[in-house]
Amino acid sequence: AQSVTQLGSHVSVSEGALVLLRCNYSSSVPPYLFWYVQYPNQGLQLLLKYTSAATLVKGINGFEAEFKKSETSFHLTKPSAHMSDAAEYFCAVLHGSGNTGKLIFGQGTTLQVKP
Amino acid sequence: GAVVSQHPSWVICKSGTSVKIECRSLDFQATTMFWYRQFPKQSLMLMATSNEGSKATYEQGVEKDKFLINHASLTLSTLTVTSAHPEDSSFYICSAPITGTSVDTQYFGPGTRLTVL
């Protein structure tokens, strides 16, 4: 069964600094991987997804993630943090495929951005 | 883009009462919808997969008689928490892929905060 593990439940960076949120996956088949962002008391917004095409995936709001099979990782990065990036971030893997799959979420990482 | 709404956005109820939460796809048809619950500072846990015109598929450990799901149309799924208790207090989120597309593209609702007194 597929799963994801997010390393670090809380990450704090200064405004303008690099953001790095870590996610490792476990999957017996080529995975579909996702990063979502959740602002307080809101649903989830898709930042980006990897579906076995290019290993470097660019998403919205300046975020990107690189799929590294050798490291079973899919870390999320942003070169320069903005105050508005403060939120909860979830890595997810698609369990199953097509119309019968379901998303399995990691534990989440809270990103704090200090002025 | 595709929009999913939920109603109500928050609800407070007394222990023992039932609460219905609606999930609507506003501008697309959704044969399948997913229901998640999220406890404070925790991840989303899939509760069940709602299928239009058929029974929902519940995840292991989720009581189907307690969390009733009805997916009566291609744009509406409802989750009814029956005989709610304080431990049912949580944030409930639904999501849906557009009918005919893969579930790797899901649209999430804004969530419903349930507080059971």
Structure write-up:
The complex is a heterodimer of chains A (115) and B (117). With 115 residues, chain A is mostly beta strands. Helices cover 0% and strands 56% of the residues of chain A. Chain A starts with a strand and ends with a strand. In chain A, the strands form two sheets. In chain A, strands 2, 4, 5, 9, 10 and 11 form a six-stranded mixed sheet that branches. Chain A has no helices and eleven strands. Chain A is globular and about 40 Å long. With 117 residues, chain B is mainly beta. Chain B contains no helices and eleven strands. Chain B has strands spanning 4-7, 10-13, 19-25, 32-38, 44-51, 57-58, 67-73, 76-81, 90-97, 106-108, 112-116. In chain B, strands 2, 4, 5, 6, 9, 10 and 11 form a seven-stranded mixed sheet that branches. A four-stranded antiparallel sheet of chain B has the order 1-3-8-7, with no helix packed on it. In chain B, strand 9 and strand 10 form a beta hairpin. The relative contact order of chain B is 0.33. Chains A and B meet through strand 5 and strand 10 of A and strand 5 and strand 9 of B.
Q: Any chance you could write out the topology, listing elements then pairs?
A:
The complex is a heterodimer of chains A (115) and B (117).
Chain A (H helix, E strand, L loop, with lengths): L2 E5 L2 E5 L4 E8 L6 E6 L5 E7 L5 E3 L5 E5 L4 E6 L8 E9 L6 E4 L3 E6 L1
Chain B lengths: L3 E4 L2 E4 L5 E7 L6 E7 L5 E8 L5 E2 L8 E7 L2 E6 L8 E8 L8 E3 L3 E5 L1
Parallel strand pairs in B: 2-11
Antiparallel strand pairs in B: 1-3, 3-8, 4-5, 4-9, 5-6, 7-8, 9-10, 9-11
The sequence of SSEs of chain B as H and E is: EEEEEEEEEEE
Number of strands of chain B: 11
Strand content of the residues of chain A, in percent? over 45%
> What oligomeric assembly is this protein in?
heterodimer
Helix content of chain A: under 10%
Low-pLDDT stretches of chain A are: none
Largest sheet of chain B: 7 strands, mixed
The arrangement of helices and strands of chain A along the chain is EEEEEEEEEEE
Tell me the distance between the termini of chain A: 41 Å
- Report the sheet with the most strands of chain A, covering strand number, pairing sense and barrel closure: 6 strands, mixed
Strand tally of chain A is 11
Radius of gyration of chain A equals 14 Å
Number of DSSP helical runs of chain A:
0
**Biggest interface between chains:** A-B, 27 and 25 residues
Mean pLDDT of chain A: 92
Tell me, briefly, the overall form of chain B. globular
Model regions low in confidence, pLDDT < 50 over at least 5 residues of chain B: none
